[in-house]
Design brief:
Helices cover 75% and strands 0% of the residues. The protein is built from ten helices and no strands. The chain is elongated and about 55 Å long. The relative contact order is 0.10.
Length: 191
């Protein structure tokens, strides 16, 4: 029932704003009794809030499956899991969450990854510690979340695995240099 309500809300939000949708309209489309809707949600805004919370809990569960041992083997598996999760929930990101929901979700995602690094993966990558401002970790986490967000906003054209490989390459190897810049740097190093 909740899934049907969420699908109906996503369909309606492709056409109009949440404030312009009625519960009757939603329940008619979902073929659900209004009483059933109210047994799950106070109103449409409560529904959206619960969808956001459920989405975040699911992502937390996905990330919780990657501990320090996984980090030892590289970041690609956990990054792939994040990109796959976002792709698997594309409809929710595109409609139900909207811009406000995305802001909250991606902010929470940043905090989740940051905390997970400090708790689980610290020591495998020298990004600093919890003491003071941690510029390396801020840069990596914001970069990954920004990449996920840009990919989602761009329609998720590339495969999740390709995006995870790109994210890992940028984290571990930095930005690629142009060929002529690499040659110039190599010549300078030889002098």
């Amino acid at each position: 029932t909740r899934k049907r309500l969420q699908e109906a809300l996503a369909a309606l939000m492709r056409e109009k704003e949440l404030k312009d949708i009625t519960v009757r309209e939603l329940t008619d489309l979902a073929d659900v009794n209004r009483g059933t809707f109210y047994s799950h949600y106070k109103d449409l805004y409560d529904m959206r809030e619960q969808v956001e919370q459920e989405l975040f809990q699911q992502l937390h569960g996905v990330l919780a499956g990657y501990n320090a041992e996984h980090a030892r083997g590289g970041l690609r598996p956990v990054l792939t899991a994040v990109f796959r999760f976002v792709r698997g929930n594309k409809e929710i990101f595109a409609t139900i969450l909207g811009r406000r929901g995305e802001e909250l979700f991606f902010g929470r995602l940043q905090k989740l990854i940051y905390d997970m690094y400090l708790r689980e993966w610290n020591g495998f990558y020298d990004l600093g510690s919890a003491a003071g401002t941690n510029y390396y970790l801020e840069f990596v986490v914001c970069g990954v979340v920004g990449l996920v967000r840009a990919w989602a906003e761009g329609g998720m054209a590339e495969p999740a695995e390709e995006m995870a490989a790109l994210a890992e390459q940028m984290i571990v190897g930095g930005l690629p240099q142009r060929a002529e810049d690499r040659l110039g740097a190599a010549s300078e190093a030889l002098r």
